[in-house]
Amino acid sequence: MYRRHDKAFHQTMWAALRANGTWAGEVWNRRKNGEVFPELQTVSSVRNEAGKVTHYVAVFADLSEIRQAQQAAEHLSWRDALTGLANRALFLKRLEQTLGNAQREGRFTAVLLLNLDRFKNINEARGLAAGDALLKAVADSLGQILHADDVLARLDSDEFAVLLPRLELSLDGAGRAALIVAEKLRTALRETIETGGEAVHLDASIGVALFPASAQETASDELRQADTAMHQAKAEGGGRAVFFESGMGETVKARYELERELRHAIDNRQLRLYLQPQVDAAARQVGAEALVRWEHPERGLVLPGAFIPLAEASDLIVAVDRWMLSEVCRLLARLENEGQVLRIAVNVSPRHFSRPDFVDEVKRQLDASGANPSRLVLEVTEGLVIGDVADVVAKMTTLTTLGLHFSMDDFGTGYSSLSYLKRLPIHELKIDKSFIDDVPTNLNDVALVETILAVAHHLHLQVVAEGVENEAQAEFLKARGTVIYQGYLYGRPEPVEAWLARLHASTASA
Ligand code: C2E
Ligand code: CA
Ligand code: CA
Which residue among 204, 221, 473, 492 has the highest number of C-beta atoms inside a 10 angstrom radius? Predict the structure, then answer.
């Protein structure tokens, strides 16, 4: 017997032989060529008439073939025979592991269930063999675009599943990751897939389940959810990805799509410059605030509330702000040429302002357009000062030296601290619409507006009151000092052409 067995092994064997007269078990043996192989050995004791053991008979059977068959069987039970991908059992096992990790770590990921659109037709038209070849080709091209540790499985005839094992910090992040993968999968299918000398273009319905939503969910729950969503995608006409449970997934998806479209909006000239008049106590226009609009080919005119917060979550806001700044500079140059003495205020988001090249960019835009810097107002928010105050002051000072002014937007809504305010070279406070809304009826707001006016007076700052909609609000402000008025009472934001036309009409009549 080959020396892979220890003393205990032999003791057990002899004990069995003495007790039962027979022993069977697996032993290792070595072939003449040196190869070690597993062997099934049966040892029986042979006794004489007196009942005394005279010798032992051992029967050996080579187990390697059985082993190979066993491994093949195991492979079969974890693998899809046609494509060699993971099968449902293996997929569920991996999903279970990932789900467990996600629940433990409080992180998130997704499972995608993909069903080919119109595969049945192809199968019926070209025959089963062609269908099988196509499924193999699909498995190959899907496999190529996935990350090495993503799990791709074939669950059913034309149904594939993808598990993303890398965990994200937020449900949002998991949703994004899933959408990116869903898009890649669909792109791979839409590209030419060659099979049997024929080119096929496919598409798929994809159901996405983000998880974990709870600590009780099981792997088959996730798969069922993805399946429900996939059927929803089919019902909507196929060629799309749908999230299970519209509540969480669909908002992520809508935001993701909007963000992607917004990236192209600037290149596709879909952003519009709108202007809203700012007037003095005699209702004479002294300037305007520049407000962005997005003219979306399908959605129509999109208001900033629907895309600025989204843009602010990424560097997209910088592109939007830059576009607005250059449009405003061009407008200012035009007004200057026409002899109009008006100021234009433009919103600058903190992310844009904090760019190291912000000052240079403003200078460049002013130079390129020939705009008069003293007519440009940059509206900034208190959010700016969370960062490096010294840097903020330095940038503002440089720009103020050029002649332009800073206005503190949404004043009073943040953590306005007077000490901060004193350090910043600003020129103006904008009282937020939310405070103006309920004056003069709400006494709290009355007190707040009065305080802001007092602060402004104390710091020698100009004041703009935003969102003035009725005479009562206007009268209230008029009685308390000199302010600039902005609101529907004087004019709504309108496209730059319309705003210019109105301006020209009023200067002609004056
Ligand atoms: P904001 O800077 O506080 O702008 C004032 C908002 O109040 C504008 O909304 C304006 O249309 C609205 N408004 C003014 N007067 C009245 C009124 O009397 N009644 C009512 N109901 N509303 C009034 P809008 O244009 O939808 O802009 C919303 C916000 O989007 C802006 O608030 C600003 O924070 C942001 N935003 C707009 N354009 C830009 C931009 O070019 N860049 C950046 N970073 N943000 C922008
Ligand atoms: Ca503003
Ligand atoms: Ca505001």
Answer: 204
Q: Taking the model in full, what pTM does it have?
A: 0.63
CA distance 385 to 490: 32
Q: Which of 438, 362, 442, 351 is nearest to 402 (CA)?
A: 362
Give the per-residue pLDDT at 14. Answer: 85
Mean pLDDT (whole number) for 135-148? 93
Q: Which CATH fold would you assign to the domain 7-68?
A: Beta-Lactamase (3.30.450)
Residue partners of 115: CB distance under 8 A and separation at least 6? 158, 159, 160, 204, 205, 206, 230, 234
> Please, what is the angle between helix 358-369 and helix 389-402, to 10°?
20
> 82-246 and 272-509: same fold?
no
For ligand 1, atom 33: residue with the closest CA: 347
The ligand 1 atom nearest the CA atom of 488: 18
CA 408 to centroid of ligand 2, rounded, Å: 9
CA distance 89 to 434: 58
DSSP, res 127 = -
Residues in the chain: 510
**384-440 residue pLDDT tens:** 876 688 899 999 999 999 999 999 998 877 665 667 778 899 999 999 999 999 999
Helix/strand/coil (H/E/C) assignment for every residue in 266-281: CCCCCEEEEEEEEECC
Query: Where are the chain's structural domains?
Result: 7-68, 82-246, 272-509
The ligand 1 site (C-beta within 6 Å) comprises 276, 291-292, 303-305, 308, 317, 320-321, 324, 347, 349, 409-410, 433, 466-469, 486-488, 493
Nearest ligand 1 atom to the CA of 410 is: 3
Q: Which residue has the tokens 């319905």?
A: 205
Assigned token pair, 362: 């403003």
Topology, domain 82-246? Alpha-Beta Plaits (3.30.70)
Atom of ligand 1 lying closest to residue 311 CA: 44
Cα 433 to ligand 3 centroid, rounded to whole Å:
6
Contact 160, 141 (CB under 8 A): no
Instruction: Tell me the C-alpha distance between 109 and 107, whole Å.
Output: 7
- The domain over range 272-509 is classified in CATH as 3.20.20.450: yes
The most confident of 2-6, 110-114, 232-236, by mean pLDDT: 110-114
User: If we measure between CA atoms, which residue out of 71, 238, 230, 237 comes closest to residue 156?
Assistant: 230
The number of the ligand 1 atom at minimal distance from the alpha carbon of 348 is 44
List pLDDT tens digits, range 437-479: 999 999 988 988 998 898 899 889 999 999 999 999 999 999 9
